[in-house]
Every structure is written in C-alpha cells, then in structure tokens.
Amino acid sequence: MSAEKMGTVEYIQHHLTNNTLALNAEAQEAINNGQMTFWALNLDTIAISFLLGALIVLVAARLGKQLETGTPGGFQNFVESILDFVSTNVRDAFPGHNPLIAPLALTIFLWVWVMNFMDLIPVDLLPYLAQLVTGDPHFHLKVVPTTDLNTTLAMATAVFGLILYYNIKIKGVWGFIKMFLFHPFGKFLVPVNMVMTLIEEVSKPLSLALRLFGNMFAGELVFLLIALIGGTLAVGAAAFFWAPLQALLDLGWLIFHLLVITLQAFIFMVLTIVYLGMAHDEGH
After folding, report:
1. pLDDT for residue 75
2. What Gene Ontology molecular-function terms does this entry list (predicted)?
C-alpha cells in the first residue's frame, strides 16, 4: 500500500511490520495486539534470507563450472578480487591457521551484503507486487532481513557459539574457566575478573547484532521518510517541487547507503575474524 493511501505513521508501521506466522493461539493474540512473541516466525525474513543465500550458492556453483585459467572474464575477476580482499583480512587479523575461518568470513561478508542490498530496492516496489499477487492490500512484506533483529541476533549467536567452541577446544575447559577467574587483573581480584570477562564475552554477540541492525534499521527509516515526501506532499501543483526533491534525496541517500551496506558487511566480517582469533589465542 503506498504512502498516498495511508497516513505517515500507518505507512511507516506497515513497512516495518513483518509477515508473521503465529505458532500457537497465545502468540496470535500477542501479534494481534502488536506485541512481539517468541512463538512466532517472521516468514518474510526467513524466506528472503534463505533465497539470497541460495542465490549466492547458485552463482558460485555456476562460476565454478566456468572458471578460466588463461584470461578470466570480468565477473571472474570481480569475484577473485573479493576473494583476495577477504583472504587479506583473514591473514592480517587471524593468528595461526584454521581452514574454516576464510570460508566463514567470505560467507558472512557476501550474505550480509546481499541482505543489506535489499535496502536499495525502492521501498514500495516488492510489497506492492506482493499485494498484487496475494490480492491482499494489507499484506506485509519486510524485504530487508538485516532490519529484523532476529536475523542479526541469529547470525551473532552462531558466531558466538563458534567463539565458545574454539575457546574450549584451544584452551581446554580449565583454561577457559581460568580466563574468567584470572583475566585481566590476576588472582587477587577474582570476583572483578569474573564480572569483567563475562561482560567482555557477552558484548561480542551484542556488538555484532546491534550494530548491524541499528544501522540498517536507521537506513530503512530514512528511505521511508524520503518516500513520504513524494507520497504525501507531492499533490497537485506541489508535485513539481516535491517530486524532483524526492528523486534527488533518494539518489543521494542511495549512493551514500551503498557505502553503508558494504561497510556494515565488512565490519561484521572483520569482528567475526577478530573474535575467533582471540578465541584461538591461548594467552588471552
């Protein structure tokens, strides 16, 4: 539903609402009351994020069958430059060798980037097409998975699981416990050490999830506000002023946001490498 057919608040709320499936009656009641609940699935987030992941796999598989060793084509050169970029960051930020880290970093960078890229598609386009297909003018479709906190928290939790796994694998169970007892102030301040280290460890997944979510959610809001300029103000003769202004603001924010989505994917990848590198450091 476009901005012309609803008020400002209703328009923004509609675009920021997920298409949610309740898993029980209580969850459905909570959703009807506009509340979040654990027993519900954000179908649009799940579908779009998995489709984008599948797209990456398909493109990689197709490229793998067409690799050229002599004079590679433009797309192969582009992909190789991304591989070099990720490989360089892994070499610089990760101590030692673990064959999982580089593929993991590449997967995170590409997946987060394509999910962020959905923010550059005109905000009304895909929801409008979904409403045409379903025949439901109130159909919800939130197309940017990384503006859903569930997505960023899920990815950060997966990385945190690997951090815990490698902490215990490299340092052993007692070494992991000692990290909480004696780091950073030694054996005479064990209670303080435990609190400090607990905060340090918990802040890792939170910093990953909240940074990405906050930046992408804010970017989505700006696109919605710019869309409102053309939708609610460009009426009659005023359209000759507001419509060009909207186009100019849209273009400017799109160019700037292209940098933002790339930077956020890069930060998520680098922090993952750094945190896993710390987990591999026996002296930490």
Report:
1. 85
2. proton-transporting ATP synthase activity, rotational mechanism
Matching residue, tokens 């694998």 = 169
Give phi and psi for 41, each to the nearest 5. -120, 130
Identify whether 91 is a catalytic site residue: no
User: How far apart (Å, rounded) are the C-alpha atoms in residues 255 and 223?
Assistant: 12
Secondary structure class of 20 (helix, strand, coil): strand
Range list of β-strands (E), the chain:
20-22, 40-42
Query: What is 147-171 written as a DSSP string?
Result: GSHHHHHHHHHHHHHHHHHHHHHHH
Q: What is the mean pLDDT of residues 73-84?
A: 88
46: left (phi > 0), else alpha (psi -120 to 50), else beta? alpha
In angstroms, rounded to a whole number, what is the distance separating the alpha carbons of residues 90 and 105? 8
215 is catalytic: yes
Q: For residue 42, which of 62, 22, 56 has the smallest C-alpha distance?
A: 22
- Of these residues, 18, 42, 89, 215, which one is catalytic? 215
Let me know if 81 is a catalytic residue.
no
